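Table S5 (text form). Sequence records supplied for joint modeling of the two-component complex.
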Amino acid sequence: MSRPATDPLAQLTEIRAIMERSSRFISLSGLSGVGAGVVALAGTAAGHWYLQQRYPNAGYLRLLQSTPQERELVLPYLLLLAVGMIGAALAVAFFFTLRRARRAGQPLWSALGRRLALSLFIPLAAGGLFCIALFLQGAVGLVVPGLLLFYGLALLNASKYTLDEIRWFGLTQIGLGLVAVLFPGFGLAFFALGFGLGHMGYGLLMYNRYERQ
Amino acid sequence: MKHLIHTLNKAFDNRVRLGVMAVLMANESVSFNELKEALDLTDGNLASHVSALEKAGYVVVSKQFVGKKPNTTYAASSEGKSAFQEHLTALEKLLRGA
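The corresponding structure-token record, covering 311 residues in total, follows.
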């Protein structure tokens, strides 16, 4: 690294590469999004199936008018489902992103990767806890819009450290969350739309732009 | 052409120093290890160049303690930022002239 760089074009190219590499985590794989979307759709189906079993013919709609005792009974199952979905989605995202980082010869757990993870997880954790409180206090119809909103804000917050598409994905989720507030009966559909199709759509977009050879 | 070459800042004629400034332009404040990771350098190599930039007044070093661990962070000074911008402009002029 010590030879003098006198060729101006080489210098400019290198400066651009260093600035890009040091300020943005670019190894994020679009396939992570596709995987997370599949997990979200499977999770929505599992949640729907569970609620139909528990409240035949009413399902999710019945949950909107449930008593505090009923909600406390279903909470462990729904939490388990949520934790399982987050775990599976993170595992898939980790797998594809690690693969992409290895191919590009970049470290995954760099200072930048840590900063990205932190800026994503702080709003996400706050949103998760807040939505559990909403659920327990009976505002069940606000849970899915809340999840979408907080997820969108988390993405928007993290987007300054990664690819630009994440910012648009965040804004999309925020918009969806706000629309979902108007249709409390369609919570599961909005969940599938935002977390399922949203991830898959943006994942495919990013994969096509950056990874497909 | 020759006179244009002389407008290039001598402080940036080394790739490591150029790299350090590039990282500090893109990030507000960066730790020593982050700099090392971003530029893929050894401790000694990086330290000497960073202190050269500090002497030139282009880099501001601040030392704090995180618990009991010393934590040194680096940031570009306003002179450093404008010197780097001028350097970039000079490079671009060179390219356009060529």
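Note: Confidence is low (pLDDT under 50) at residues 1-5 of chain A.
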